[in-house]
Each structure stands twice: as C-alpha cells, then as structure tokens.
Amino acid sequence: MSNNGVAGFDLFTAREFFDAHACAEIVAEMRAAQGSPANVYGSSEAGAVEERVRRVTRVAASRETVESVRRRLSERRMEVERHFGASLGECEEPQFLRYGVGDFFVAHQDGNTPLLRLERERQRRVSVVIFLNRQSEAVAPDAYGGGWLAFSALRAAQLRLAPDAGTLVAFRSETTHEVTPVTHGERYSIVSWYWRKSREP
Hints:
Layout: E1 11-14, H1 20-32, E2 35-37, E3 54-55, E4 57-59, H2 63-75, H3 77-84, E5 88-91, E6 95-99, E7 104-108, H4 119-123, E8 124-131, E9 134-135, E10 143-146, E11 149-153, E12 156-161, E13 168-172, E14 176-179, E15 182-185, E16 187-196
Parallel strand pairs: 9-10
Antiparallel strand pairs: 1-13, 2-4, 3-7, 4-6, 5-16, 6-16, 7-14, 8-13, 8-16, 10-15, 11-12, 11-14
C-alpha cells in the first residue's frame, strides 16, 4: 500500500484490495449481467444520459457482490480517514462500470464543492475507484487500452493512472478527474464515495 501524494496530488492507494481470483469473478459477473448507459447527475436526483459527457455502461451486479464491496470498503474506512484527515461515514452504493471502445468520462468533480448542487454530491468527501482488469498497450485478453484515470489541478501537471487489477485509488471528491477514451478491449471498474460522517443528534 502506498499513501504518498504523486506529482502534487493527494491520493490513497491500496494494492490487492481484491486479489486476482476476486477480480476475475467480478469481471465474469459483469460481462454476463445486464447493463444500461450510466447517468450524469447535475441538476436532478434522477440524472440523465449525456453521452457527450459520460459514455459508459453501468452494470447491475448481484446484491451479494454489491454488499461484499461495501463491506470491504467499510473495513478500510479508518485508513482512508487517517490519510485524508476526514471524518467519514458510510459509502454510497457502488457503481459497477464497463467501458467499451470509445467510452469515456470528461473532466469533472464528484462532490464537496459548491459547483455541485445535489444533496448526495454535497455529502461526498472521498471518491474511490477499484480497478478490476489491467491496461495494456497491445491488444491482449482481459486487458484494455487507453482508459486512463487522469487528474488535473491548477498548480500540478496532469497525472494519469492505470493501476494493476485489484488496486483501489481514493482521492478527495473535489479533485478534478476524468477517464480518457478506451482504445481497445473493455475496462472494468467499481466506483463509490465515502460520505461525510453525520452529526450525532
């Protein structure tokens, strides 16, 4: 595990959040599952499909798989809290995402910024991406090309990541980031968000 900032970006990373066997099982489930275009949430809770902004398939994973991911994220919450110096509550329900050739998500922020107006987005403090398969420049089985997780900031050079399968990357939800277009294969990932901890009554 490495918790050091990279090129001026404050990231928390955990290698082998899922082992190779778990990644393969989740990817197999995602390939067989039904999916639909993922929404963009900007002005309403329902969201809308906006393919100029976000083109990716959100897969309906089984309840067992969803709860397994939430449980694993809950187990790592204290480590993430220590890294970011934040008091965190529960995770938003994970999204299981399949990026095909040409799919992407333009530069955006997930939460904790006045630019976002929905209550759910205002609750988000730390964003999480779990990579389920590997990136490869050459066409290869179970791999994808492109599909970088890219970060940008006013005073830092752009950072592009494509970690090993099973790696978790977490960052503050107000951090500007994007997914660059996939050039070959399919990119499988899970995303979620730790919410701010609710105040006690």
